[in-house]
Amino acid sequence: MKKITHITPRYFFSRVNTWYYYKLHPNEPWLTQDAIKILDNLLSKNDVGIDFGSGRSTLWFAERLKKLYSIEGNKGWYDKVNHLITKSGFNNIEYQYIKNENASPEYSSDYLKVYEKEASFDFVLVDGIYRYEAADMAIDKLQSGGLLVIDNCNWFLASNSNSPTSVPSTAEQDKEWSSFNTKTEQWRRIWTSNGVTDTLILIKP
Fold it and tell me: Would you say 161 and 198 are in contact if contact means Cβ atoms under 8 Å apart?
């Protein structure tokens, strides 16, 4: 049997608290509460952004940006979110479904082609498939002062996080994400956690 080590009193409290917060704020993204507050302050109506992995975040970001490109790899979820976008009346969202075939490498170029839509971007949320590839390409495509947000960052980047399935700080960092860390070592990092999942905000110098 698989040993479940994250079910602790602290985790249970965090889980209930997180559920309660999202219940009270049904229109906010499934990011940490701290990350939501920070992004609400930093995003501008002049900004152009990308939302890799659509959902509650899509309309929330569209309300705060001049233009949002949103990419989804799950057809069922795409249909649900597309319905919400249509009902919302927002006309600044370019929403696209990219067939992912279980995140096969041959589809990554189609999924990441959205980076060709603009010369540069002010904001990128990485919360879908091809997370490393999407984050790595954002390094060059973001303007100075641009925001790169990686949800569930504790799954990929070594840390001292108490959230489940986190890569411990003592573990050897994955080669690709180690390269990412090196490339962004001069960027400001704001690591947020709610005890259930973590969201990292990086600000390009």
Answer: yes
